[in-house]
């Protein structure tokens, strides 16, 4: 194989592919990115055997087609530190050689034929969704998943693909985030009744690998894998096995709730101020609504006390909830400060429900006052995950 590549173009694609490799894998071959060069395109392949990526790279001058294994720990620094506009890559029986205008590197290389087989998006039936929406779905739900739980279903995002929409749900059993938006089923792609849980790690990689563009994302499920393709990038991920909580049951259906509209920016600022005295052990801030204001108060024995007041459009009787300030901050952090959201509350014992007008919903269970130093629980959210 002999190719000439634009260094910056190859660097961007190679770094994305490298994030899918497993640098501590007992299988050394998985510490490489495989390059296949033919025509005017080089294809980069990488996997850790759970999630895989295929990236087609243009601006390649292929003099001799072929393939090679490129060790991430060596090839990535060469691309990053070189100042050449173009680099030449040549493969022979002794390994891989990389040439710049005034530099040359010789790298060891294994047999590319032993690399796991490549993936391709060949399905005729799939869903289409905009890249912007998919990245927003991930951003607004990923933080609510539980990557440390032994209940594997909570370590991923549930993706529900319906005829005209996509729904993403993440929960750790103490709070739950749900985001939905428009999607199009092509050629009757139907996942009705299927449980499609994508691992949190895979969703992080998908978010990084898909660049913002007008190109839609094609998504389909084949067996125990989900495939996504947009432009030059194709990604495959194993699905998580297990039962996901009946998330619709977590959103309370109640007529007696109080609805309060709040601005994201001021609310987030007030919570950050009140959280200054909070600690990992105290884990709670009192949210007191009433008489035209929201009072946020925190107290930690060894740190101090805080009291922050925020004007709100609610003049009714006082209602106090103890909420984990980190969970509320997580919700506000992924929203634009200029937006507003609706907060639905009943009393100290019922969940607080946060919602925006673009399909985003978030449920947080209150902390019992006697458990403020313990982990909050949301029995309703976890009963079906056992």
Structure explained in plain terms:
- With 386 residues, this protein is of the alpha+beta class.
- The chain has three domains: 2-114, DNA Polymerase III, subunit A, domain 2 (DNA Polymerase III, Chain A, domain 2), CATH 3.10.150.10; 126-244, Roll (DNA Polymerase III, Chain A, domain 2), CATH 3.10.150; 252-385, DNA Polymerase III, Chain A, domain 2.
- It has helices spanning 7-18, 72-81, 131-141, 200-209, 247-250, 264-274, 325-333, 379-382, and strands spanning 2-6, 32-38, 41-47, 51-57, 60-64, 66-71, 86-92, 95-99, 104-107, 126-130, 156-161, 165-171, 175-182, 184-186, 197-199, 216-222, 225-230, 233-238, 258-263, 285-290, 293-300, 304-311, 319-323, 340-345, 352-355, 360-364.
- The strands form four sheets. The chain has a nine-stranded antiparallel beta sheet.
- Strand 11 and strand 12 (165-171) form a beta hairpin.
- Helix 1 (7-18) runs antiparallel to helix 2, helix 3 (131-141) runs antiparallel to helix 4 (200-209) and helix 6 (264-274) runs antiparallel to helix 7.
- It is elongated.
- The model is unreliable at 371-386 (pLDDT under 50).
Count of helical regions: 8
Radius of gyration: 25 Å
| Envelope shape | elongated
Structural class: alpha+beta
Q: How widely separated are the two ends?
A: 53 Å
- Given as residue ranges, the uncertain stretches (5+ residues, pLDDT < 50) are 371-386
Q: Could you say what the CATH architecture of the largest domain is?
A: Roll
| CATH-level-4 superfamily name of the largest domain | DNA Polymerase III, subunit A, domain 2
CATH fold-level label of the largest domain: DNA Polymerase III, Chain A, domain 2
- Biggest beta sheet summary: 9 strands, antiparallel
Largest beta sheet: strand ordering: 6-2-3-4-18-17-16-10-14
CATH domain class of the largest domain: Alpha Beta
Average residue-wise pLDDT: 90
Number of domains: 3
% residues in beta strands: 35-45%
Q: Helical amount among residues, as a percent range?
A: 10-25%
Q: What's the total number of strands?
A: 26
């Amino acid at each position: 194989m002999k190719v000439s590549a634009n260094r910056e173009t190859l660097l961007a694609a190679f770094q994305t592919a490298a994030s899918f490799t497993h640098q501590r894998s007992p299988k050394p071959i998985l510490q490489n990115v495989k390059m296949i060069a033919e025509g005017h395109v080089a294809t980069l392949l990488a996997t850790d055997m759970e999630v895989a990526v295929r990236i087609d790279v243009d601006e390649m001058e292929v003099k001799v087609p072929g393939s090679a294994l490129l060790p991430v720990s060596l090839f990535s620094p060469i691309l990053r530190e070189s100042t050449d506009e173009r680099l030449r890559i040549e493969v022979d029986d002794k390994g891989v050689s990389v040439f710049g205008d005034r530099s040359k590197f010789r790298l060891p290389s294994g047999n590319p034929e032993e690399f796991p087989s490549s993936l391709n998006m060949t399905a005729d039936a799939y869903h289409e969704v905009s890249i912007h929406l998919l990245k927003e779905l991930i951003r607004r739900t990923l933080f609510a998943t539980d990557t440390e739980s032994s209940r594997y279903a909570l370590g991923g995002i549930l993706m529900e693909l319906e005829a005209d929409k996509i729904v993403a749900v993440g929960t750790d059993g103490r709070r739950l985030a749900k985001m939905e938006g428009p999607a199009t089923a092509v050629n009757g792609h139907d996942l009705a009744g299927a449980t499609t849980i994508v691992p949190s790690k895979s969703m992080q990689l998908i978010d990084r690998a898909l660049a913002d563009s007008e190109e839609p994302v094609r998504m389909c499920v084949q067996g125990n894998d989900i495939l996504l393709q947009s432009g030059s990038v194709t990604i495959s991920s194993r699905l998580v096995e297990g039962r996901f909580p009946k998330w619709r049951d977590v959103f309370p259906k109640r007529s007696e709730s109080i609805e309060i509209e709040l601005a994201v920016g001021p609310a987030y600022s007030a919570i950050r101020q009140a959280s200054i005295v909070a600690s990992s052990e105290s884990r709670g801030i009192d949210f007191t609504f009433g008489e035209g204001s929201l009072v946020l108060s925190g107290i930690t024995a060894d740190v101090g006390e805080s009291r922050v007041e925020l004007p709100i459009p609610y003049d009714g009787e006082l209602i106090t909830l103890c909420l984990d300030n980190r969970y509320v901050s997580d919700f506000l952090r992924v929203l634009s400060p200029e937006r507003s959201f609706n907060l639905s509350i009943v009393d100290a014992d019922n969940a607080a429900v946060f919602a925006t007008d673009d399909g985003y919903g978030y449920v947080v269970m209150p902390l019992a006052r006697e458990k403020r130093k313990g982990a909050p629980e949301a029995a309703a959210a976890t009963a079906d995950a056992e």
